[in-house]
Amino acid sequence: MPRGRYSLHDPHDHTPLYEEHFQCAPGPSGWRYVSQITTPTGDHHGSVDLALDELGRPLRLELHAGGWQVRGAALDGVTWVRTDPTGTDATEGNVRAHAFTGTSPAFLVATARLLRLTPSAAATRVRLVAFTDPVLAPRTVDQSWALVKSEAHATDNGPLTVDEYQVTALDTGERQTVHIAGDVVLAAPGIELEDLQSPPSSFA
Predict the structure, then answer these.
(1) What is the top-level taxon of the source organism (predicted)?
(2) Phi, psi at residue 82, to the nearest 5°?
(3) If the chain, 204 residues long, is cut into consecutive pieces of 10 residues, what is the mean pLDDT of each piece?
């Protein structure tokens, strides 16, 4: 069960934003990721709880940030309920999309798991609902994912396969490179893996 810490920063000016303390593991129904998010000063900011089924679809999503809450799942596309900090105003949403995304590295692993790309395959288009900081506002985004290469690296625990993805935002054309090993993001724009206490899990 990988357990560790990501640092999240602004990908343009590298301003530190948050630290995300996480643990994740594959299970009989798929994969689960839970984390607590803190500010650079150590204050609690929010949390992520994401469970995928064996095909990589979101069984359950629960996000908290700044008092806002989102609960969602794959249902007629994706469906969610967003609640304000007072708990009195809940708004339901539904979009014909494949999955969710957001600032957490968990969503990169989840999308890669959903697409199951191979290096020889063409780039695949995917529609996602992104929940953006600081109020978890939903926004539909279209991306193109391509698996550029998979390389095995020798480690003390045996070979570790690292997948390099090219992710393109279809509305702006902006391209990003994402490196994932198993169920851990090694590097991505705005994301750095600062600590990992056990090796990444490999998906069967």
Answers:
(1) Bacteria
(2) -115, 125
(3) 94 94 90 97 96 95 96 96 92 97 97 94 96 94 97 83 97 96 96 94 78
